[in-house]
Design a protein that fits this description.
Helix content: 55-70%
Number of helices: 48
Shape: globular
Strand content: 5-15%
Radius of gyration: 35 Å
Length: 1015
Amino acid sequence: MSAMSNIRLLLLGAPELWLNNQLIELKSAKAMALLAYLAVTGTPQTRDHVTDLLWPDSLPDAARKNLRNTLWAIRKQTNEDILGAGGDWMALADVAVDLREFEQAQQTPKTGPLLANALNLYRGPLLEGLTVTDAPDFELWLAAERERVGQLYLRLLEAMIDVQRQAGDWRGMQSSARRALAADNLQEPMHRALMEAFARQGERAEALRQYDTLAEILLQELGVEPLPETQRLRAEILAGTLGQPPAASMPAVSTPPPRPPRKRGGAPFVGRQAELDALSEQFQLAVAGQARVALITGELGIGKTRLWQEWSASLPESVTVLEARCLNTTQLLPFAPLTGLFDHNKCISRVIQSNPAPSSIWLAELSRLLPEIRQRVPDLPQPPSLPPEEEHRRLYEAFIWVLRTLNGQPLVLFVDDLHWIDQSTLDWLVFLVDRMQNEPLLLVATYRPSDASPQLSQTTAGWSRTGIVRRLPLGRFSLEETTALLSALGRDVAHVEPLQQKSAGNPYFLIELSQDQANGTPPELAELIRARLNRLPEAARQVLQAAAVLDNNFDFSTLRQTSGRGEEETINALDDLLEHNLLTENSKSYEFGHPLVAQVVRSDLSLARRSFLHRRAAQALEATSGDRLDTIAGQLAHHYAQAGQPGKAAHFAQMAASRALKLSALTEAIGFFQQAVTLEPTPARRFGLGEALIGQGQLEEGRRLLQTAAAEFEQAGDSQGVAEAYLSLALSFLASGQGKEVIHWAEQARARLGTIDDPAVLARVYHTLAAGGMLLGQPLAQVEKHLQAGIRLATKHNLPDMAGICRFELGNVLAHRGDLAGAVSSFRAALELSEAAGSVMQAPVARNNLAYHLILLNQLPEARHHIEAALELAEKHALFSPRQYLYSTRGELALAEGALDEATEWFERALAEAERNHNQPQAANIRANLGLAARARGDLDEALLLLEAARSVVASLTLPHLQTQIDLWLAELYTERGELAAARNSLAAAKKRLAGSERHGLQAWAEQVEQRLNG
């Protein structure tokens, strides 16, 4: 092979590949995308990662084939092995890449010749003109890299202009400034440099024309005037008094300079000793192994967060302390505070490096919310597709597992501004406190009761009833405390009484009033803040406005792009804002020192300025999101809506809703779908909102929306959409046990699919018709006919998961008919199909039913094998919903073996799971089983109580098979107790239900009970 030095890859501008000074025309855009990705990342990449990036919509085998074909094409066209590979990874060989040389120039002394060489490498934006439309993650990565490289280019130009100014090279300075403005025309220092270069060459009219150009751009793009220093430069040019060029006035800066750490809050701490002592008491109770909750409440500015900061600073280093903050702008974003928690406290690193090694199951679950986990651990399995209620529980458990991994003794979790919490995080906090009630956990939260939602008020009231809460309401300062605060601030306390009166004892008001230097101190805090902001430099005020639109936890790059200011200007503005404690700095982001400052800044923005900033915020977030676009879709929807771009806002609101659904966050999903429908209604968005509402139990409104969506799909000629909407309607009635409606809408869906080749949907329709028939008590032969149709369709079109589900339901039909051998055979087939389809949820459920019916056939050893295998699968995959069935069947096995105490123990565990899942029918079934265990022990009174309780529950439900079973068990029990009249009543109820049915097994049992009763 020839030396790699003969190959050169140019990425700055339109991408080019040169071999021995000849341009190689790669025929595939993805071939160039692959080379570029390996060159820019500079690290080996796994084949799976590359295929996911470039062929995300292909099946795994097809994606790997596409990659092999692409590699073959590159080698064929270059006749070189420019890609090194080993096992499952690949990397770019020793190829000359212009971007690497360009980046190296950032690390060397900035001399004229070196800068000129580096700038000559820049032919245009990174990979200019390259698009890979069916690889969205690659496009997002490319957008972020283009922004990064573009900033490097501007820094080099800034450094070159500085060199040229010192050398008096005005024509060169003019050229460099034009190049910088061609890349970003909002760089006001570049406009000033161009004005200066024109003026020093005697071209005063061109310099003034450049000022007018800048003023027009700033007005259109940012809604602001040029900065005071630009206006002064214009005045000097007009007056002909332009001074000597300043030395080194525009240093190139690659990142914000390091600053000494600042203590958050800044103000001295006064009083609150009783509250500090109360927090310490709660901490000691948590240390003893009790989950405790401390709620710090009070009005805005009263010092809730400051109290936490003072108390937590005294905790030993061995205590694990986690801090999360809720924001007004993220109330619709599911788990937003928990996402921020990971960013701020570096939990991911601690979890991944924990000992023992972290569970891949829980890491995979968390990666759905935190994609950066998968970047750190790329070989994680994909989370299985599970029912929403199961995914909901798994994600909750995953967060609990993370907290336990951190080994807090105790673990202290702080949540600031709880009144702005999203519903999913609030539900998780309830789950957390319940799940860890006997573990060392202290939850501390601050909130304003006046702003608390009804859900939050109900939650805190529930905690109070359990006795685990300590409420710490913060009152206003007394005159003595006000005097102490002013003294600690170094203020004159001679006029403490007027300040106490004006502030009403609110600490934040006091601090603002005491430091205001304006004459005639305004009485309102908002006016105090405005007076303080007006003393800031103009650039700092503009950057603060951008920060207020972003709200909180924004990084430097996003803030710079939103403000429209250059890097150096943004850094200087940040210095001012940090110095005045208007913003505080975390490890990677910035936030407001007090939320009221952000509120005041936002309220003072003009409509045009607010719209400008929201548009730029959305664009900045898109550019910097990389492959995390769906995680910030809710923020993008908000910004685009505020920017007056409803189409884009609706698009991202729908994306945010879909992500919320994946996280089983129905409340948030509904909010985003409602936003999307309001902004730009489409049938698909109405459909999504309808399904989400039904999932939350709002059946009437959800069904109305599904019918509206179906009508709109019909109008658009989308028969597939109509069928999907009808099928969803059918399933909504299935959940509420309305068999007639299930059949009606499933038939409507089947009619719509008559001309559409979608076997998967049609198979679902047949399964739904069967389920509705079971509810309605249709003849079992008719139900079986639908299931057989679904099985044939699924088999013909290779849909093993659907075939397995239909086989499973067919087993239930056969069991109801009394054909236990046929049922066992069908469950075996369902198990085989489920395992072939890789169905994590269906396989253990199939084993469960197989085991149950083997028990009925008295084949106990094989039944034990299957139920233990099912339990092992549920444990392996951390499945929660199936446990209510698996534990119950395990109890049935113990009951059949005569192990009555063991049976009772399993039944009680099953009952707890059923109640946790709000599954009334299963809970009733398990109570009946507990009654059978009591009967086997000879405790007929306990057995009667349990069986009657079970019968009262199922009386209001459409469950003919279970109702008949309970009636027959009661008939047997009453017979044993000698209560023959009650026995005959129960038997009569069972026989009436069985009249004319095909449930031969139950009929035979009823005959046996009747013979015993009459014998």
